[in-house]
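Our consortium's second objective concerns turning raw sequence data into structural hypotheses that experimental partners can test. To show how far this objective has progressed, the report includes one record in full. It was chosen at random from the queue rather than selected for favorable results. The single chain below, 266 residues long, was entered without modification.
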Amino acid sequence: MKSVGRLRRSEVGSLSGRKRREPPGGGRALEEWAMKLITVQKDPEEIDGLLGDASAVFLAGCGTCATLCRTGGVAEVLAMKERLEKGGRKITGWTVIPIACDDLSREAIQENAKAVDAAEAILVMACAFGVQMISECSGKPTLPALNTMFVGKESGGGVYREICAQCGDCVIGKTAGICPITRCAKGLLNGPCGGTNHGKCEVDSSVDCAWTLIYRRLEELGRLELMEEILPPKDYAKASAPRRFDLSELLASDSGERSDEEMVVR
């Protein structure tokens, strides 16, 4: 049976045949995790352009988020294999890594070393984190087959919505716990705009106006005075790339004591 990272193909969950598999360390089954990296597949023309003249390709998918999104699970990897082969490219091998953004990617590349060595490029059907992980350990041109859209939280019925832009300058303490950067189509820090209409967004009338939601929640909390505060422009220097977090610098002593001032994020 075809190897899929540490799992056999029959053990990888999918939306069409969901199987419960406990994540490392226990906890909720992978398909039930609330947060997911949401991806969509690139157009075939863009993928072909990225592959260029590469005639031999190794395929890698992801058994977690991309499987849930139906963009990089077993079925999608096999469909990509079939399409590329019809286009005249040789597929040297394929794998679906249980968690592509994890060190399991390194293990999967090692397990499939012969097929990877025979390839001129690796096409990764996983989020950008997975692509970068495989790129670091493969020594091959590593190309994304997917676009990473956002970190999504399930809001019911398999629908995921963006809840945090990870901007490094959080304002939701002033906006009743609702992020205006992600929930407002215009990302307004001081709203609402003049286009709100009966609680709906003028950009998309099927979407609730973020600032109407903020107003209503502040009203419920008895904190409407916060609507009168003018939030300053965001300090995007706090999100300057590449960001880095060093856990070791949090340790104040061998006892592990630390203070808020000792948290270091770069």
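The partners drew two points from this record. Confidence is low (pLDDT under 50) at residues 1-33, 260-266. Strands lie at 3-4, 7-8, 35-41, 56-62, 90-97, 121-125, 142-144, 146-156, 159-162. Both points have been shared with the crystallography group to help prioritize constructs.
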